[in-house]
Amino acid sequence: MKISQSNTFKKAIKKLHRNQIPELKKAIEKIANNPLIGDMKRGDLAGVRVYKFHVHPQLVLLAYLYEEKGGLLKLIDVSSHENFYTALKRE
Predict the structure, then answer these.
(1) In the predicted model, is pLDDT for residue 86 greater than 80?
(2) Are 38 and 49 in contact (CB under 8 A)?
(3) C-alpha neighbours within 13 Å on the C-beta side of residue 64
(4) Average model confidence (pLDDT) for the chain?
């Protein structure tokens, strides 16, 4: 499986604290092992899946696209819940 990152995702990683990176890597591994684990969104975000996980007490959302035919997993954005979907619609 090929994993790619959007520019938004790359910028979001830079904003994370050092102790949040290992938890993010674990979440990406879980998604790579089972790409259908995230919740499929509807409406404006059709086709986007969101995987929710906790980093210490905070809920973090990871948005991604998965194409079965090409085996491509594209990481779109990672952030806390506040304004996450609004920012994702702007993508």
Answers:
(1) yes
(2) yes
(3) 29
(4) 91
Percent of the chain residues past pLDDT 70, beyond the cut: 100
Tell me the two tokens of residue 14. Answer: 């830079």
pTM for this structure?
0.90
Rounded Cα distance between 91 and 69, Å, is: 23
Domain span at residue 54 reads 2-89
> Dihedral angle at the C-alpha atoms of 69, 11, 41, 44, nearest 10 degrees?
-100
Number of structural domains (the chain) is 1
Q: Are 5 and 76 in contact (CB under 8 A)?
A: no
SS3 of 30-46: the string is HHHHCHHHCEECCHHHC
Retrieve residue 81's tokens.
């819940």
Between CA 55 and CA 73 the distance in angstroms is 22
Instruction: Please list, in sequence order, all residues whose beta carbon lies within 8 angstroms of the beta carbon of residue 72, skipping any fewer than 6 positions away.
Output: 1, 2, 4, 65, 66
